[in-house]
Structure formats: C-alpha cells, structure tokens
C-alpha cells in the first residue's frame, strides 16, 4: 500500500558537482534543518516546488521528477539509518514509508457528495453516514495513512533534534561545501563559513573575483547556500546580476520556481496554527508565575481553548469540530484567532506579550486591514486561500471584537495566566446608532412568494420540516436556537375566560428559553398546531403533541434509506432534534432557490433573498405584526425583548404617515 526504501536500495546523495539545467551545486550531502522541513511539508501534501524553493534553494534547481524523488529518498534513507544506528528498527521502517497523498482522483468533498446525492437538509450525522457507506474502503485507507503520518512526523521531529545541525559561522568550509571548493577557499585564508561571510560582506557582489578557481557559477551556488542559512550566518550580498554566468544560473533558478505552485499560507486557523517556541507564549512577557496560574495551559493557544471551553458545556475540540461549538464559542474563536495571528505574524509577539500600543494598533488594523489578510467568506478554513478577515470591519464590529478580546484577557487575568489586560486602555471606535436595518426582513409580497414556493416543494421529510418551520418562525418571531431546542413538552394548552364567564380563547402556548436564560411563552395559532400534528405523523409520532413524549418540534430526516438505499441502515430516532447548523443550511438553500427564480424578473428582490437568513423571519414577524395593529407590548413579549425601545424600532407606521403627509403637500404644491 505504501512504498518504502530498503537499506540496499537507498538512493545516492542527491548533490553532485553539476545539477540539471546548468545549475552548479557546491554543497556537501549533509542533513540540515531545511531537509527535515522539506520532508515534513511534502509528506503532508504541500507543493514540492514551493517547499524546495523555501527550504532547499541550496540544493540546485527544482526538478519534479527523478531529482526530487532522489532527494526525498535520500533524506528518508539517512533518517532510517540514524534510527537503525540507535537500535530502533521499527522507527527506521516507518521513516522509509512514503506517505505523501496518492496521485489518484481524490474523493469528493462532503458538500459535493451531499449535492449530488440530494441530501441537502439532512442532519450532518446522516450525511456522514451516507458518505461513509459510499466511500468506506477509501476512507479507511485515508485514516490508516493519517495515523501512520502522525507517527512518522513525530519520528522526524525526534530525529531532527538528534541529527540535524544548524549551519554555524564556526563550521569549517569543508563541513558543508564539497572538498574541491573548500580547498580553494582554504588557500585564500577562508577557513570557516564565518570567514567567508565576512569576506563577501566586505567585497560585495564581486567577492569571488580575487579567488583562484572560483568563477561566477560556483560563486552563485555558494551565495545561494549561504543566503538559505542567513538566519544563522548573517546576510550576504546577492550575486551580480550583470555577470553572464550568473545570469544563466539565476535564470535556471527562476525557471525552476516560476511554474504553478500552491501558495503556502502563513494564515492558519486556530486548530492548525502552531507558533514557534519563542512566540507561543510559554515565555510571554506578561505571564504570571506558574504557581499562581489555575489553568493547565502552557501556551497561549491552549489558554484560548480553555477560555472558549468556559463559554460552553465542555472542552473545545482542538481539531475545530464545528458541531462541538455553540454560536458564542464560534464567534469568540473568530476574534481570538484573528488577534493571535496578527500578534504573531504582524507584530512578532506572543499573545501574552502584547502591549497597550499593540492593542491600539490592532484596533486600527481591523478598520483597514491589508488586502492579503482578507478572503471571501466562503473560503473553507482548511483552504490555503483562507484568511482571518473578509474586509475592513465596521465601527460596531470593531467595538465588538475589542469587547471579546477584553473578555479573553480578563478571563486569563482572573485565572492567573496573565498579569494585565491592555484592552482596558483602548477606546473602541465611535459608532452611530442607526436602529434596526429595515432591509433585513421580507415585504408582504416577498413573504407571499415564499409561501407559494414552500407549498410546491416535493413531499420529502426535509421539505415537510421546512413547510412547518417557516410559518412557525413567521408566526412567533422565535430565534433559531429557541426553535431547535423546543419540544412537545414545552407546549401548553390553555382556555382563557372571556367577558361574562364565557370562553374567550382556547389555544396553545410554547415555552422557550431566550437570551440570558429568560423564560417566556409565545402563543401559537390553530393553523400552526394542525400543521404540527401533520408533521409529527410524518415522523411516525402521535399527532397529539401531548402524547408525543417530548419529541423535538423539528426532527431529522426520516427517509434517508429511500433517498440513499446503499447507505448504512442506521436507526433514526424520530423524536431526536435537528442541529441548528443543519436547519440554517437548509433554509439558506431555500432562500437561494427562491432568489434564482426572481433573478430575471426582479433582481433587487433576488439580491434581498440571497442575503436572507432565519433571523429575517424574526424581523418580518415584528414589522408585519406591528403594521397589522398588534400592540407593541405584545410584540415585545413575543420576541423576548428586555426593553420596549428595542421593539419600537420595528414600528414603521410613523414613517408611513410622514411620507403620506409629505406626498399630500408635494401634490398640492405642484397643482
């Protein structure tokens, strides 16, 4: 399954006096940290061309063929030999396995599979079950490869500390350069690499001219090697671009790197971002003594995860499983992730070392981020094109971000991880209160269109769920989180006495838990209760909610076996709830479908529907109810607003009256 190298077939060192495409190599075959970094990157599927340019520029021009395979084979053979010398033969065999992603056609993404199989609206667990049934053997191979790859990367990391040696100014030239070149440098009195670097710095681009036996081609190769290790050797002058031989050499290098290569992004999401030891916070400037800290976290990322865990019901999955995070955790993760990336990548500081000046600079950064920090909202977190921002933040969004970071630092301070909170000294940008956006709701005509399209949907279980849920959201103004948490046990039937002791109203109430854990009851119309009875029966539950045994009002799909017959026949619990993310995706897809039907006839309405979400139905409930004469206090109670002022922002009757009065005035003036 996985190719390997036997000791007898270990490749020869990939360096020789001459390289393909006229590139001259002067480097002695010896492992340095660049070899380890290159092997780690290639094993994880990153572009070999880009990684060669980054880590092995001193090894000659890149060749995506025998040369590259000789290099990776030689590195693996050297590591395997090092492990075998220590008696660890199992590790030696593991290191010889080539675990790079296979070149076969990749499996479709889950999203593509869901679209092709018609599983939109199914719960994610159901979609995953069908995906597993379709691609089980291939997924098993992927999981085995991933497990072996993790073990191999651990082995590479362990051996790097034992075998790899940084290129040092005190190293003799013969330690890193081929014997013939080192001998010529020795004759000129250049014994160590430090001597050579100082000689080059003093002489400039033409440093090689006084040296016998060192021409432009060898000089360029030496320069490339030394510049690749400038972090330990110091800067050296570039090759003279006017030398004909240097032009050929540089041209070969440029040609080798000019091909299409996957970008290697430094912007990694929180679950994949691992700063270097000096920037991960273990030695942060404002860290409290370890004996005072009540967190087990040893670095800034783990401290962030502990903070996120405090906002939910349990520990946060370091791999970033979306389903394990609630809405607050996802929003807070985004802000902490952005700031951690900015602190490390833009300021070169650990999060636990940021100053007040850094915090002020970050506020300004959010209001005007560079273009390379931004990407489309739709980029997945695993993509190399993903960025932490989509563009400049509004003043209100920036103020929110600073508030979240203030919460993070207050938590870390209270737990004895940090000694201060710089955000207390940072003023949020000024915001102008504009009220609620009247565009985040549907007009009466748009709502009528949605109702017509809804009624015409095919009779699948996910569509039947939508046909019940959409009117429920419109009639009650519930939040999405309140709806998916509601069960039949939260329903209560009540008869209210009217005037003269007569029965004034006989109806149903739904009890929900809103923001801040506040309980409220929302009245339900009789038509909605009839729809609920029909929907419960499609799930093989009693139509009377009092006999449904606490079933979720919104359940999962019940016809998976009919839609995907080859899927695993997993038993579906008809009373189980649906995840908020699943229903959110379904309703967004429904709105997009409605928008496409209006794209030609009514482009503005189509653009409106493209942006719509479940929360728009809450806005629509409020504005339509108030326009129909429902008292504002009643709407406030339905929505669960703490302040009446929040509800009155939906009132549009005053604006309509002003508009009508002015229209009368304008008509009189023009008469």
UniProtKB/TrEMBL annotation:
Q: Has the keyword Lipid metabolism been applied to this entry?
A: no
Instruction: Name the family the entry cites.
Output: Belongs to the 'phage' integrase family.
**Gene Ontology molecular function terms on file:** DNA binding
Protein name, please? Integrase
Q: Which UniProt keywords apply?
A: DNA integration, DNA recombination, DNA-binding
Report the residue ranges that make up the Tyr recombinase domain in this protein: 437-664
Which portions of the sequence form the region Disordered? 1-25
